[in-house]
Write a structure and sequence with these properties.
single chain, 2 domains, three-stranded antiparallel beta sheet, about 10% strand, transmembrane
């Protein structure tokens, strides 16, 4: 009884399977499943307040399994447990790889944004250079205009001086 009572799992069967009645505490006794090597998968009724209660109510629901059934059930139980561990491990690996992919995507997005910033900086330099060149052209045009005007004024002045 002690090994079976210690091996209870928290999953209880539907109410249709609870046909034994109440334990010594007066509480309805739930149907549990033992997962020990001697009783793998064998169902039993026990106190609902176990292990906090001193009620020692216990009754097997299933007949005892044959030695072969116990062996196969225990082997399947252990395989199932191992497969669940592997699944959990694979899920953790997938989660870690997903996190790595997210990190790589973030890095790729950062690089793309950096490239866009560099491209915008180049465009800004080009615009500044154009503005500078346009300013020089305007200054040059203004200087040419002033020089032309000076030449015209000089010619007119010389013409006026020569005509006197």
């Amino acid at each position: 009884m002690a090994s079976s009572a210690n091996s209870r799992n928290s999953s209880q069967q539907p109410s249709c399977c609870r046909r034994f009645g109440n334990c010594y505490c007066g509480v309805e006794s739930p149907l549990n499943t033992a997962w020990t090597k001697d009783n793998p998968g064998r169902r039993f009724y026990g106190c609902a307040k176990f292990p906090t209660s001193n009620c020692e109510f216990f009754h097997w629901h299933d007949e005892e399994f044959s030695a072969r059934a116990k062996e196969v059930s225990w082997m399947l139980y252990k395989e199932n447990k191992e497969l669940r561990k592997q699944i959990k491990m694979f899920q953790q690996e997938v989660s870690a790889e997903n996190n790595q992919i997210v990190g790589l995507n973030d890095s790729a997005n950062t690089i793309e944004l950096q490239n866009q910033v560099i491209q915008l900086q180049r465009q800004l330099l080009e615009v500044k250079e154009r503005v500078k060149n346009d300013g020089l052209k305007k200054n040059m045009k203004c200087s040419m205009f002033m020089a032309s005007l000076l030449v015209i004024v000089s010619i007119v002045t010389l013409a006026l001086i020569n005509s006197r």
